[in-house]
Records
---
Amino acid sequence: MLFSSISFIYYFLPMVLMLYFMVPFRFKNCILLISSLFFYFYGEPIYSVLILISSLSAYLHGLWIDKLRKSRYAKLPLICSIIFSVGILLYFKYADFFIENINWLFGFEISPLKIVLPIGISFYTFQILSYTIDVYNGNAKVQNNFFNFAAYVTLFPQLIAGPIVRYTAVEQELSQRKHTFANFSYGVNRFIVGLSKKVLIANTLGELGKIFYNLQESTLLFYWIAAISFMLQIYYDFSGYSDMAIGLGRIFGFHFLENFNYPYISKSISEFWRRWHISLGTWFRDYVYIPMGGNRVGTVKWIRNIFVVWFLTGFWHGANWNFVIWGLYFGIFLIIEKIFLNGILNKLPAIAGHIYTLFFVIISFVIFNTNNMSECIEYIKGMFGALNIPFSSAETEYYLRSYGLTFVIAAFGATPLTVKVINKIKYSKKGEHILNILEPVVLVSMLLLVTGYLVDGSFNPFLYFRF
């Protein structure tokens, strides 16, 4: 079930809210668990059993870790938990990738298993791992109530595409959280904004991408238009989902951490990754990079740590070599920046840092969005005039005019300018009064516009569903 669907917005969500706020607090987690399982079952009937098995495994391993905490065997249940969770992820997400590469390397003819990827498995597996690791390290108390723990793992606002919510972030709120009108209002507003980002901007930019790939003949300019379009699309698609998840979480009394912080205003690749998919970056930092020694080791080991983290970051995104290369691509830039480029960037005007970052981020998303490296190389050739194609055409200019307004809105909205303007208006009493009147009108108008698009539009899933 998609957040950006009529069935979710006008049937599922109102029913869940009605049941949730009708029952006493002690039953609220049960309502969330049941509704979350139904939400997942709606899209993945078979794999609903898998997520329950994963939850039960993590719950039992947590109890086991707590029981052996002072024993010399305390690490055993942690290792078992990691092997079980990572093993499931490797089997369901990467088995065919390994078979394909073994066949290529050794000339075998092993038949692929053709396993359908369970939706959201990468996200909820990382949440489970964060729980057992934090319990072992003493950063989280063991959860004795299975229903509360299962509600955390399956919580539908962030189940399918994140953000990766660590157990420690909601540990207290699982057993005691406040439901206020202010939280509810903020959650609804945030949800509508995220929904609008997805349906009105990301989906529209996605249409332009489909047009590009269906063209018989393209132009150098259209290659760049399509590349920039995808860069904006994936931001609005994924940050829109995160907005909706954070908004829904707040409605139910949970405070999820932010997942994006205007990454396209960054002046370096390092800064970009502090602002992009924050929950994933901090997860790898805290559970892989720092335990390996982080930057508190010699240069050679530090470079090794960077490559390991960014290999895993790329591989986490998908069972394809282009994702691995995408991750290592960023790892190389981070090493180069740390060793000598940061000093140069700090001396240059800010605009130079922005251009440098955006240019290489655009190239990175070309790698990310292609199916294999030969397709990626062909695409990059098209961007840099190596395919003997014209610079522009009447058709290219037509689509540029048609989608020009969307590009302008998307580019402007990817910066904090809108928020700054609104905050400045709020400083005056008159401005605050006007905003209090306009805000609900604008939000209702956006919801109606989105509804019109959804009724008349076609199926358009979130890009990160495949991860």
---
Amino acid sequence: MVVLNKIYTKTGDAGETALGNGVRVSKTSKRVSAYGTCDETNATVGLARLHASGDMDDKLALIQNDLFDLGADLCRPEMDKDAEAEYPPLRLASSQVTRLEGEIDAMNANLSTLRSFILPGGSALAAHLHLCRTVSRRAERLAVDLAGVETVNPAAVKYLNRLSDWFFVASRVANGDGIKDVLWVPGANRD
């Protein structure tokens, strides 16, 4: 259980922070950028939930918890095989990716085929879900960038990839199963 009895510690005043294994790194490191953007994604989901209800709100609550799991995963680099961890690291599981895939398939089953790209908007919930989608895409790019130089749990990257798809399909559901989608009209404003 986490106990937070003091919120500020002053340990980051010089631009460094501690990873989950205690190693101190720059706050601009690839790892901190990746898990920080997962936290940012989580905050956008909190905004979306202001406009969600029922099953959609329940699913978004699961995603928020998953995003905390993901942040915990990304903030704890793999340790040397000989090193002993104080506690086992929390790693995102492939079952969390599979759950998203099932939800995407279920939501997408009732949607008409797209024949145009969609502009972010429509209902308030759809607009917020599009914001979630774009921020989660950035988190994915940062996680992929990190994976290019350090070991990253493959399920973490897969989760972020599916998550942005989840937000896209959910935004269509939030727009009356796609009826109120705002479609892109190529070149509509040219002279």
